[in-house]
Each structure stands twice: as C-alpha cells, then as structure tokens.
TrEMBL record:
Species lineage: Bacteria, Bacillati, Bacillota, Clostridia, Eubacteriales
Highest taxon of source: Bacteria
Protein name (record): Alpha-ribazole phosphatase
Pfam families: His_Phos_1
Transmembrane portions of the chain: none
PANTHER family for this protein: BROAD-SPECIFICITY PHOSPHATASE YOR283W-RELATED (PTHR48100)
Segment forming the signal sequence: none
Alphabetical list of SUPFAM superfamilies matching this protein: Phosphoglycerate mutase-like
Molecular function GO labels: phosphatase activity
C-alpha cells in the first residue's frame, strides 16, 4: 500500500524555532494558509492516521477535508523535557542544554525512544490499513517522529537522522511494506526544501 507521510503545518513555535514537542499549540495563521495552499498538491487518500496534537489534527483537516481519520497516540512528537517552549537563544548559556547538544546526556524523551515509538505506530497503522483494504493512506505527524521512523524504515537509507528532515506541510510518498516493516520512498510531497 502507498503512504503519504506529512509533517504538520507552521506554528508560532516553529517560526520562533522553539522546541514545541509535547506543547499542544495551534497552527499560526500562515500555517493555516500554507496547508490550504498545499492541499491541492497532495494525492487523495482513503484514510488518515494522525497525531493527537492540535497542530496535526488541524493540518489533516485542511489538507484532506472530510477524510475519515484515526488518532494514533504514538504519532505524537518527542518530549523535549525542560527545553519545551524554549529556543536556542534562550537556552544557549544553560549548562544542561550545552551537555545535551554535545550528546553527553538525554533530556525528555531520547530520539531513539521516539523512533521506536514511531516504528510501533507504523506497524500498527500498516496492519489496520491492510485489514481495511486501503490502497493509499495518509499520516500527519511531527518532524522528529517522522525522521526517527524514516531513519529506521526508510529505503534507500540515508546517512543521518536530519537527512530525512521534512518541511512543514511536506513529506514523502512511500510504498509501505509490512514484513519486514519498510518504507520504500517513491518521492516527496507537499512543501519541499527550496
């Protein structure tokens, strides 16, 4: 089956380069506009699997109006712990932040745990979609979660985690294989890097 993987649209926190993570923030006005402009560029889907976060739910409504969806808790974003809501400028002199940047310690949810959670979600939604007989589904989630999922399952593989970085309202088309779990990338969708 084919899957369209899309990152949510722009939030105020994204514009300010904040660690939004588990904060349940709405789309910024320009995020609403971007999603409306992106919608005609995306393939149709039979069903959506979405993060429970408001920014993903609203993005899904704007990208694929009226399409039935399933909220999947494991598609939520990484928990950035004490860095939630802050940006680099506010944290740059924080010793804890410096240690985290240097890779000396984890805070909140480690990236590897988020990737494994994304893998679980992918397996479950693949099974659900196959049982329902869907040929093309959509997933609306978060940048960190999607990068982790693609690092584990995207083919051809890429060297680094950030090589999978999706822009807001951008992402990938992939063939979703269930055994073994794999995402064979067919191309990009929506907003892509300039």
């Amino acid at each position: 089956m084919e899957v369209i993987l899309v990152r949510h649209s722009v939030t105020q926190g994204n514009k300010e380069k904040r660690f939004v993570g588990r904060l349940d923030v709405p789309l910024a006005p320009e995020g609403e506009t971007l999603a409306r402009e992106t919608a005609p560029l995306l393939p149709t889907v039979e069903h959506l699997y979405i993060s429970p976060m408001l920014r993903c739910r609203r993005t899904a409504e704007l990208l694929w109006p009226g399409v039935e969806h399933t909220v999947v808790d494991d598609l939520r974003e990484t928990d950035f712990g004490p860095f939630e809501g802050k940006n680099h400028e506010e944290l740059k002199n924080d010793p804890l932040y410096q240690r985290w940047l240097a890779g000396e310690m984890a805070v909140g949810e480690p990236a590897e745990d988020c990737a494994r959670r994304g893998s679980r979600a992918l397996g479950r939604l693949a099974d659900d979609a196959a049982a329902r007989g869907y040929e093309r589904i959509g997933v609306v989630s978060h940048g960190g979660l999607l990068m982790g999922m693609l690092t584990l399952h995207g083919r051809p593989s890429r060297e680094r985690f950030y090589d999978w970085y999706p822009q807001n309202c951008g992402g990938y088309r992939a063939e979703l294989c269930r055994d073994p779990l794999r995402l064979d990338i067919l191309g990009t969708v929506g907003r892509v890097r300039a």
